[in-house]
Amino acid sequence: xxxxxLEALAKKSQxxxxxxxxxxxxxLAEAVIxxxxxxxxxxxxxxxxxxxxxxxSWYAQFGGAGGGPSGIEDKEGSITLAKISVDVAQLxxxxxxxxxxxxxxxxxxxxxxxxxxxxxxxxxxxxxxxRIADGTAARIRPQ
Length: 143
Fold this sequence. Notes:
The chain is mostly helical and 143 residues long. It contains 7 helices and 4 strands. Strands 1-2 form a two-stranded antiparallel ribbon. The chain has a two-stranded antiparallel ribbon with strand order 3-4.
């Protein structure tokens, strides 16, 4: 797994570390859940969708406390992303945030038990985290 230097990304983007972290978590969540970044195609499969339960089961959790899946079926993933974004907006320097999925079968989906993402969807995004982080920093840099 890659290690990211948020301070270096903040310098590159000319933004605060908190802003970079918030934007990056949102970009990563979007890539994993629906396969896009900043509403643009990014080449990721996204979380496979049949009923919308797997996409609707993503949630943000701070420091291992609180949070949980909403229980909604969210085929498009937009409701789930909006909820995660609200939580991520509270992220401060020093906080630990996790984006988790509460669907009982999410591991099977990640391990290729879906024709929509036979190579998985989470690990593909995580393997590309450095490139995504650089893209986030470039996108939020003032023009």
